[in-house]
Specification:
With 163 residues, this protein is mainly alpha-helical. It has 7 helices and 3 strands. It is elongated.
């Protein structure tokens, strides 16, 4: 099996501290390095549409919420795990580009909803198609059974943090 840069780090620690089980460093180190590669590859695809990762996330969240493609700012920042300030900034940016608009919430006189505009709908439709193609490309070195096993393992690990 081929070696990667994390193997070198593990070998160095094994040489220097043979008393430590550094095997978790291998898993977490690879996940961290992969996250950086994935972030770059994904950001590159979104940049082709003039979007940041955060802007894509807002548009995608509105799109996948279904018609009428509206959510409260609170629902958006809860779904995306960002602060309200970060969400306000993203909404402001998208509103300036006419991808979303703020509308009064008919069920709460004091509230507003964020609504996907026609331009925003068109943008997210194109961007999400390119994103899915890119993700298939990114995972193309894995067999279908490997992808399924990796999905199960990552789900288990994620649940341990989010429950």
């Amino acid at each position: 099996m081929a070696s990667d840069p994390v193997d070198t780090i593990l070998a160095q620690w094994q040489r220097e501290r043979p008393d430590l089980d550094v095997s978790p460093m291998g898993i977490i180190g690879r996940m961290t390095r992969l996250a950086k590669h994935l972030e770059r590859a994904i950001a590159q695809t979104f940049s082709e549409f003039g979007l940041t990762v955060g802007e894509f996330d807002v548009l995608a969240t509105l799109r996948r919420s279904g018609q009428p493609y509206q959510l409260s700012p609170t629902a958006l920042f809860n779904a995306l795990m960002v602060t309200s300030g970060t969400m306000t900034h993203r909404i402001d940016q998208l509103e300036r580009r006419e991808f979303v608009r703020r509308i009064p919430d008919p069920s709460d006189r004091r509230g507003t909803l964020i609504e996907l505009t026609e331009q925003g709908f068109t943008m997210i439709e194109k961007a999400v198609e390119a994103h899915v193609i890119n993700e298939h490309r990114i995972l193309s070195s894995l067999e279908a059974s490997e992808r399924e096993r990796l999905t199960q393992i990552l789900r288990k690990l994620l649940i341990s943090f989010e429950n």
